[in-house]
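[job 4471] stage=fold_predict status=RUNNING
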Amino acid sequence: MTNRSRFRSNLAALAALLALSAPLLAACNRPAEAPEGKSAEGEVNVYSARHYDADKALYVAFTERTGIKVNVVEGNAQQLIARMQAEGAAGPADVFITADAGALWRAQTAGLLQPLTTEALTAAVPANLRDPEGRWWGFQRRARVIAYDTAKVKPEEVDTYEELAAPRFRGKLCVRSSDNIYNLSLTGALIEVWGADKTRTWAKGVVANLARQPEGGDRDQIRAVGAGACEIALTNSYYYIRMAAGDDAADKAITEKVKLVFPSLDGQGAHINISGAGLTATSKNRDAAVRLIEFLVSPEAQTARSAANGEFTLSASVPTPPPTAAWADFKAHPMPVSAYGPRQAEAQALMSAAGWR
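[job 4471] inference complete, writing structure tokens
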């Protein structure tokens, strides 16, 4: 049974998750650990833009450990941000969870998150993977990488982000739309390192290299390389890893001929991003919410998510398990992920002006 098929229901997911992480199993078998003078029972309301069975299994494990019930409302990040804004101070959300530091920044700038700092969070999350004021905390990493056709492209031809815009790849590149948060964050990071002029030239080169107009998600870009529609594509690492480790025979076959390169930005490593969580400004269940966020960043939870979902742990101090470990030996750029959000508007304007739809 593959990782993917193990996670088809909450109970099955919990069993697989605990089997993959012995420390988490031990934690779940311990008696509930309530703070002194506090009941172990209660509830916490989560608004989550992540839709993975692995996450649901972690909520079950958290409840097993603490007695705290986790209620989850799902939607995309913008929908959930709009919902919290509409609900105002009376809103029930305690924890906001989403992928991409740029999306967390949107919630932050909307005034929807409050500062939170604890010893457990500070110890678990490297400084460059969290908001400097503690309004959100990364709990998993992913890299923005290049998928390439091994029959047509050599890995050294795509080992930097500059090469996405090189004349060598005219009409041979597949990408998502410019308003996709992953692309906005990458372009924001490029502006941070290169400045606007060089990034503007790069964006024009990307547009000149398009094999087709941007469409679909990251997996669609990988599949397009496999089908010969393009030679290279921009994607998040975990999409590819899930395809390679999953039980879809067609997707697995694609990853036999399409491989990944972790390109370097300014010689300092691959652009990385996070999934993360923040304490809402209107939380009514603060103690339970803090405990959940601490649990989500714990090494046990990182390891379990990495095994099930293809995402990387936050640092080398938490080993990446199989099957994700096969792709974990890369150099990550040290840029604070909090830099991406403030560059969003500039990145979008620059990409749109270049004709990147």
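[job 4471] summary: The longest strand covers residues 137-149.
[job 4471] exit 0
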